[in-house]
Every structure is written in structure tokens, then in C-alpha cells.
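Model: You mentioned two targets. I'll fold them one after the other.
Researcher: Yes, keep them separate.
Model: Target one:
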Amino acid sequence: MDNVENMLEVSGVKRSYRMGNNTLNVLRGIDFSLKTGEWCCIVGASGSGKTTLLNLIGTLERPDEGIIRIAGEDVSAIGRRAAAKFRAKRIGFVFQNYQLLPELSILENVSLAARLGGLSAKAAKKRAEELLVSVGLAERLKHRPNELSGGEQQRAAIARALVNNPDLLLADEPTGNLDSKTGEEVISLFENLRKDNPNLTILMITHNRELACRADKTVELVDGLLV
């Protein structure tokens, strides 16, 4: 990882979408930064632009205006191939719906992400096994996603997100589909991750303000602006 104080810098970011003859201004000028190793939660009502902002930071979309820097590198306007390569190496994603491939075991799911990150088949399998064991899934390596509980699937998804040692972990409502007890276990796992990876920067979207209070800082997105 680059030796930078701010892992993430977002400056003047705007994003809009055409809706028939109308323009929907989702983000209207976002400015914020995250220090290396910091954990930030973004809260806000549905439709406030939280997922759009996460997609822009994750290089899944481009902003209409503004600059996004990750580890000092401007990723605002890089091409699709460069963005995909950057994501594989530098960014980990955790989704509300897990996004595990149903036809693969969880070991194969995590190993595949490691292969996309450049590891050999042998090294990818070893790395995947180590991470799955570390998140408490040692007895589930050969199980497919539909054979796991929601909490177990999310643990597998977190292992996949970490397999390439990302600088930035983006989590979109990681407890949204879980009951309160399982959600608490997942958040505790994030807390433990920070102890083992002090330079890992986490940006999380959540509707749960109690869980958001566990982060280093919380920002609220209202009508396309951070408050």
C-alpha cells in the first residue's frame, strides 16, 4: 500500500441520471476524505444517493464532475479495463445480497476472486482457505451458498472481499438482510478485522444508526449532499 495519510479523497463529486425527459440529480457536490485505517459509516434515507456514491468510489461508475482519489491515485475517469484491474487489486466489496456465485462452493468463490487478483491457483486456494477459517467457516469450505445461513454467506463474502489485501473495503448494507443477532456478529467481525489490519480503510453504508456509531465517524447523506 502507498504511504498516504488520506486513503480516500472525494472532491466536488456530482452524479445525475436521465429519467425520461427529466434529470435526476442524485449527488450534488460531495466533499470528504478518509484517513488510512479509518472506518466511516454513511447513513441516509433510501434514495439519498448512498449506493451511487459507493459505486463511484468503487470505480463501478464515473462521476459527471469532481475527482475521486484512492491512495493518491485519481480514479475518476480511468477506463473500464484499468478500473477493473484497480478494483481487483485495491478495493474489496461487501454487498447486502452477498453476490456469491451459486454454482461454486464458498472456497471456490473466494479462490476465484484471488485468481482475478493475480494469484496462482495453488496460492489462491491457500489464501482463500486461510481467510475462510479466520471468519469461522472452517467446516463450510465445500458448501455452496444456498447451503449456508445468511450470516455465513456474509462471512464468506467478507473473506472474498479481503482475499487480495485491499486498501479500501466498501460495504453496502452488510447487515441489511440479517437478524439483529447475526448483524451484530458481522459488525463485530469488522471490528476484529481492523485489529488485524490497522491500515484497512472501511467505508460502510447502513440504515442502522446504532451500528454506525461503532465506526470512527458517521456522515449523513441528505438530498445528494453530505451533512
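Model: Target two:
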Amino acid sequence: MVRNKKSLHVITIIICAVILIVMGISFATRGTSSASGNVLGVVVSPVQKFFSSVGNGVSGFFGFVFDMKDFQQENLELKDEVNRLSARVRELEAFEQENERLREMLDFKSTAGDRDMVGCEIIAKDPSNWFYSFTIDKGSDDGIQVNDAVMSGYGLVGRVAEVGAGWAKVQTIVDVNCSVGAMVSRNGEYAIIDGDLTLADKGQCRMSALVKDTGLVLGDTVVTSGLGEIFPEGILIGTVSDIKSDSMGYSQYAIIDMAVDLEKIQEVMVIRSGR
């Protein structure tokens, strides 16, 4: 390290000496003849060019450093702008999805005939049984009662299980304690829809009480039968995705893909029964 520092000092002294010599020669030759000046010019010119290039290089280096600071600042500003625009795009997409859902609800309400329905927003979901129940923002003050049917623009969701003045708790049809009278649209075959622990998180439920020769096929549409005085007739439940026989082989049951995605649902319609 000491030797390197000494070498650096020696080189610096030599460079300074050369500069001084060149400057002295340059001043000394101003008044000399053109021939001698040319000779000295030939000798001195490469040295002058060398130091000139060194000076330009140093100047360019510091200019580049200052420019880099400006570039970095502009880059940060551009990144901030991109983040703001991305957030705005996500916000607009959320608004568009909400408007689409509300349009579907309004379209459904306009085709629901004389059913007395009120739109509600989901304000809470039970984290311990995400698919089984949730809370809506309307209750008895809005004419909602226990056992009123709940649906969305896509189909049946469940029933009202508890009611407060400004809220109500909804039990979905995938709850193991919920049963729905059902009917196969194609042939009018009656059945029962029950919740199943192994199917709930897949958005499915079980349809049982089918005779073996019912003629059920994959893709059949299942709707509410109207039996039981809770769920009105004709509300879409889902479609048949699998058909199985019971252990004795005397009857069948089917797996139903629900028409409503309970994981993504945010608004519902409550059919006020006025009991």
C-alpha cells in the first residue's frame, strides 16, 4: 500500500513537470521563427492532445455522473406514475364488475314477475365456514323474515336463518343442515338437494332420493320444486356433473355444480315471503 502511494506521488509530480515544461515551451516559442515553431509544434502537439483528451474525458465522466442522477430521478417518477395508473385501472375494473353484477340483478328482478324482492349486500362471511353462511346489510326493518329464500342473478343461494333490525344471516344450500326440494327440468323428476362437507368448498352439493331408472344424464339442469314452502318453484340450482349409485345399488345420487359461485358472490336478492 505504501509503495502504491509513493508511485502515485511520483507519477503526479512527473505529470505536473511535463505540463509546466509544455507550457514554458509554448510561451517561449511564440516569438520564434515559423520553422522552429513547427518543430516544437510537432513535439508538443501530441502531448497537448493527450492532456486535452484526458481533460475532456474527466469532464465527460462527471457530466455522465450528473446525468445519471437525473435519469434515476426520472425513473422513480415514471415508476410512481405507472403504479398510480395501475391502481386506477384496477379500480375501474372493480367498478365495471360491480356494475355488471348490478345489471344482472336488475335484469333478473325485472323478469321475476310478481315476486317481492329486495337487493342486499354481503357485509360479512364467517371465516370458519366460508361457504356455509354470510351476513347481509338488510333485516326486519326491510321486511326480511326467517326462511325467506335468497338468490342471485345466477340462481339459488340459500335461505335467511337469523334476522336483526338491519341485518340478516343467510344459510347457503351447501350447508349440511340445509335441504332443498329440487326437480330435474328435463323430465320433472323430484329429488332433494343436501349440503355435503366434502363438496362445499368445490361449489357443489348432493342430489339424492332418485330412483335408479330416473334417466338422469350429465348436464341436466336442476331447479327448485316449490315443495316445502320456503323456496319458490323454478329457481335454478345448478347442473348435474356426476351420477353415482348408492352402496345397495337401489337408488342413485348426483353431484350438482352450483350455478352461483359462493366464493365470489357480493350481492344477493331476498324474496320477501310476507309470512
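Researcher: Noted. Anything on target two?
Model: The radius of gyration is 42 Å.
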